[in-house]
């Protein structure tokens, strides 16, 4: 038996946890019958209490969808949450009517009990799906959406997917009411350093204005629905290699991924391959994905920790060789984490960049807002009174995003993937993404080919910023 098959046999026999799969070899003849996804209510245990949340369950009972290479996105979505909803296929690039949003007017929300069919070519990579209706995403109406490549299926790797989230026992409506009512939403509850609050919500440090980091005081942070009080333990083969697919599905929290003294190789971001680079500490803002290659050679346990910027709170999973003793890890680190930054972004180089071509159209937009009053927008035109960004089919489009606020913003463009072409005025041949981190008072340029006509949302992926108005459209003329 080959090493590949023996390793697959080991993994298939020893792994039962939801976050890890042994990729099978798929034959040439594949049955493309529709798969069913059920948006549902469920209960999870969080810190010894019952958490009433949502989920998106596949035919096999697993949260999320994992498609083999070559299979279309042929899905029947069944809404069983007891209210209307919309599920956005984040990272996929279908026609606008199948994007999973109702704000653009192509389709109406999915009624309770309604089933809706989707059929489009699946884009390979690590993606995810989440509600794009109201504030439901905060209640964990989200799940992984991974589409494998032939190379994934042939690789001698263990495949592990981790969805990060921030969790509150309060309802999202209560949280948003606190924010828009002018309350601090618990900044001081996390013992953040730096003195007092300024009138507009920014932190005062040594008499200087600094960035604001976290809108909301959360009860817990989750990795695959679990805290570090009872983390998911992924058992691995001795000396095996793991492809770790990290998804920041948090509603408003950015993380630093910390591997301690273990060096990992970055393989992809937002489902798009990059030239491999190594490191042991990586920033991730909401909606971004990060694929890492971790070699267990000579190691028995590798904690993969995600600590919230500006806080000591953390979550994570543990990779552990079969039979190895697993250490107990605290949910609170010894030190507060630094703000996320562009240290990873400035190192990334796309494996498949845009073709060399000058921009046909350069657009500018400004992210604006304050914590108090809690108001966010592009160009001082909060949704729905937005100022749309107009493009024409076939153009190479560059958007310069200026963040004129004291809070960073993770910005997502629907229906397209773009290349990062400048950070704070410095040109680069950066990664291809669908979600970009724009630091406080910073400037980022992104470029894309206008090859998917329609009306497409462009918004902050901090759910509460979006709900407060930070959303516009890219519209094809």
Estimate percent helicity: under 10%
Shape assignment: globular
**Uncertain residue segments:** 1-18, 24-29, 182-208
Cα distance spanning the termini: 59 Å
Radius of gyration: 21 Å
- Biggest sheet architecture: 7 strands, mixed
SS-derived structural category: mainly beta
User: How large is the count of helical segments?
Assistant: 4
- Whole-number average pLDDT? 90
What percent of residues are in strands? 35-45%
Number of strands: 34
Structural description of this entry:
- With 477 residues, the protein is mainly beta.
- The chain contains 4 helices and 34 strands.
- The strands form 7 sheets. Strands 1, 10, 13, 15, 17, 18 and 20 form a 7-stranded mixed β-sheet that branches. Strands 23, 24, 26, 28, 29, 30 and 32 form a 7-stranded mixed β-sheet that branches. The protein has a 5-stranded mixed β-sheet with strand order 14-22-21-16-19, with no helix packed on it.
- It is globular, with a radius of gyration of 21 Å.
- Mean pLDDT is 90; it is low at 1-18, 24-29 and 182-208.
């Amino acid at each position: 038996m080959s090493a590949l098959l023996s390793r697959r046999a080991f993994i298939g026999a020893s792994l039962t946890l939801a976050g890890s799969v042994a990729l099978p070899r798929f034959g040439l003849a594949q049955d493309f019958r529709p798969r069913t996804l059920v948006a549902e209510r469920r209960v999870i245990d969080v810190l010894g209490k019952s958490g009433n949340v949502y989920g998106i369950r596949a035919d096999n009972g697993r949260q999320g969808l994992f498609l083999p290479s070559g299979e279309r996105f042929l899905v029947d979505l069944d809404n069983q949450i007891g209210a209307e909803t919309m599920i956005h296929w984040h990272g996929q690039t279908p026609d606008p009517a199948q994007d999973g949003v109702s704000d653009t007017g192509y389709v109406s929300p999915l009624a309770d009990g309604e089933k809706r069919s989707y059929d489009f070519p699946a884009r390979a990579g690590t993606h995810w799906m989440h509600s794009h209706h109201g504030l439901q995403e905060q209640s964990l109406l989200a799940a992984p959406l991974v589409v494998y490549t032939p190379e994934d299926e042939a690789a001698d790797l263990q495949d592990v997917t981790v969805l990060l989230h921030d969790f509150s026992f309060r309802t999202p409506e209560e949280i948003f009411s606190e924010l828009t009512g002018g309350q601090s939403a618990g900044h001081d509850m996390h013992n953040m350093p730096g003195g007092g609050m300024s009138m507009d919500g920014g932190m005062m440090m040594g008499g200087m204005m600094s960035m604001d980091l976290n809108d909301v005081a959360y009860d817990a942070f989750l990795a695959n629905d679990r805290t570090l009080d009872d983390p998911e333990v992924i058992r691995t083969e001795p000396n095996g290699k793991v492809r770790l697919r990290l998804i920041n599905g948090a509603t408003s929290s950015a993380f630093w991924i910390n591997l301690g003294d273990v060096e990992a190789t970055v393989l992809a971001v937002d489902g798009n391959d990059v030239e491999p680079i190594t490191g042991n500490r990586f920033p991730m803002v909401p909606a971004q994905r990060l694929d890492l290659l971790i070699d267990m050679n000579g190691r028995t346990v590798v904690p993969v920790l995600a600590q919230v910027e500006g806080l000591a709170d953390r979550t994570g999973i543990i990779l552990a060789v079969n039979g190895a003793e697993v250490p107990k890890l605290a949910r609170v680190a010894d030190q507060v984490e630094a703000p996320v930054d562009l240290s990873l972004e400035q190192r990334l180089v796309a494996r498949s960049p845009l073709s060399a071509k000058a921009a046909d159209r350069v657009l500018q937009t400004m992210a604006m807002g304050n914590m108090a009053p809690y108001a966010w927008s592009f160009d001082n035109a909060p949704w729905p009174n937005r100022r749309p960004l107009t493009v024409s089919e076939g153009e190479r489009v560059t958007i310069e995003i200026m963040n004129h606020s004291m809070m960073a913003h993770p910005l997502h463009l629907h229906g397209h993937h773009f290349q990062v072409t400048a950070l704070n005025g410095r040109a680069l041949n950066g990664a291809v993404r669908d979600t970009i981190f724009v630091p406080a008072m910073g400037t980022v340029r992104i470029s894309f080919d206008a090859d998917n006509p329609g009306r497409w949302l462009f918004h902050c992926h901090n759910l509460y910023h979006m709900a407060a108005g930070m959303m516009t459209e890219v519209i094809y003329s």
